[in-house]
């Protein structure tokens, strides 16, 4: 177990292509998989590896994120010593700069007793054994290790993610951007392992020179001067940085092999518990290949879809290839296909909505949709 490691999760992520879901919440607290939030995965990865000191740096004072995380009890981080720390900063004054944020909270790093740091973003969806990655890092003797995933679908996914160019000794030579031109690529998962001393020195150097606004830029643009080791992750990974990839990641969870990988019984994904009653299925209900959370009433037909808590799907409604978030009401005779519906939406009777897997239709929260 990584008793000598602290975790840092930065939520300074690119949300331009997923703004419909992040207007009133950070990307990290967007619901996924029927009952989870995106941040649950990276947070659980750290906790499962034995890390008990985790700092989360958020862009603003988000009610949804604070409500979800609380004091960290679902992740066993509600502690007197160490635990979960949530740091907020004003995005208007941050200029999307990790360094300006960290400059204000250096005391957190100095006071933490751990020797090593695992630094990560929230939007790389995976279930990873960080303990194994940390062992490889320490054995390598390198200053920094970055975790990556070799993919064969870079032309359709991971848009604008960082691509690592790695030599035969597993050392990062240079870093580029994925423009979805070629299929094969080594995608950076934006998970970095290093000594806390190395992190502190990087932060102070960046502040002093003013050259870099993010930690990863300060590493990537100096790979010729810093020994950056690369560790390959073999499991499922998806970067949720667009509506299309959010839709894809949810639909992937309907694939049994992906579900078994993401929800590994040896490394569970924890989330905030809500005491909802079991879902009620009526006599005429038809469901197939779907994930349906507790607290729902299902009277219609649900195919190949993900339904969150407290959703009511009325009789004769047909839901296909959809993601329905919490507390939505889908009335009688409605037909939905390739649609994402955010929280507290009412779809009136006999309404038909249709998108495509490439361009799913998104209905923003608290709307009323009708056929007129």
From TrEMBL:
Residues of the Nucleotidyl transferase domain: 19-161
Single Gene Ontology MF annotation: glucose-1-phosphate adenylyltransferase activity
UniProt keyword terms in alphabetical order: Glycogen biosynthesis, Nucleotidyltransferase, Transferase
InterPro entries according to UniProt: ADP-Glc_PPase, GlgDAde_trans, GlmU/GlgC-like_hexapep, NTP_transferase_dom, Nucleotide-diphossugar_trans, Trimer_LpxA-like_sf
Superkingdom of the source species: Bacteria
EC numbers: 2.7.7.27
Keyword field contains Nucleotidyltransferase: yes
Keyword Nucleotidyltransferase: yes
Family label: Belongs to the bacterial/plant glucose-1-phosphate adenylyltransferase family.
NCBIfam families given in the database record: glgD
Name of the protein this chain belongs to: Glucose-1-phosphate adenylyltransferase subunit GlgD
Gene coding for it: glgD
């Amino acid at each position: 177990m990584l008793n000598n490691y602290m975790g840092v999760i930065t939520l300074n992520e690119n949300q331009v292509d997923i703004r419909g879901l992040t207007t009133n919440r950070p990307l990290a607290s967007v619901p996924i998989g029927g009952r989870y939030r995106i941040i649950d995965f990276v947070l659980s990865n750290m906790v499962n590896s034995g890390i008990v000191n985790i700092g989360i740096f958020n862009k603003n004072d988000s009610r949804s994120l604070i409500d979800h995380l609380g004091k960290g009890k679902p992740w066993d981080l509600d502690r007197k010593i160490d635990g979960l720390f949530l740091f907020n900063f004003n995005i208007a004054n941050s200029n999307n700069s990790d360094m300006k944020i960290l400059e204000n909270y250096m005391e957190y790093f100095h006071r933490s007793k751990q020797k090593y740091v695992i630094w990560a973003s929230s939007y790389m969806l995976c279930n990873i054994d960080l303990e194994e990655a940390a062992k490889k890092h320490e054995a390598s003797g390198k200053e920094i290790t970055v975790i990556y995933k070799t993919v064969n679908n870079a032309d359709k996914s991971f848009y604008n993610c960082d691509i690592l160019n790695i030599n035969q000794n597993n050392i990062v030579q240079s870093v580029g951007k994925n423009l979805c031109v070629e299929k094969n690529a080594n995608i950076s998962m934006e998970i970095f392992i290093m000594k806390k001393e190395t992190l502190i020195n990087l932060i102070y150097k960046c502040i002093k020179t003013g050259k870099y606004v993010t930690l990863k830029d300060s590493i990537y643009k100096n790979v010729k001067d810093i020994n950056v080791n690369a560790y390959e992750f073999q499991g499922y990974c998806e970067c949720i940085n667009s509506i299309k990839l959010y839709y894809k990641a949810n639909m992937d969870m309907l694939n049994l092999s992906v579900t078994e990988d993401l929800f590994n019984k040896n490394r569970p994904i924890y989330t905030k518990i809500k005491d909802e009653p079991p879902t009620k299925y009526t006599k005429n209900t038809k469901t197939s290949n779907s994930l349906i959370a507790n607290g729902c009433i299902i009277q219609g037909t649900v195919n190949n879809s993900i339904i969150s808590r407290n959703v009511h799907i009325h009789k004769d409604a047909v839901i296909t290839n959809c993601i329905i978030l919490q507390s939505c009401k889908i009335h009688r005779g409605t037909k939905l296909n390739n649609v994402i519906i955010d929280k507290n939406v009412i779809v009136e009777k006999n309404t038909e909505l249709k998108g495509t897997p490439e361009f799913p239709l998104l209905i923003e929260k608290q709307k009323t949709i009708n056929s007129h």
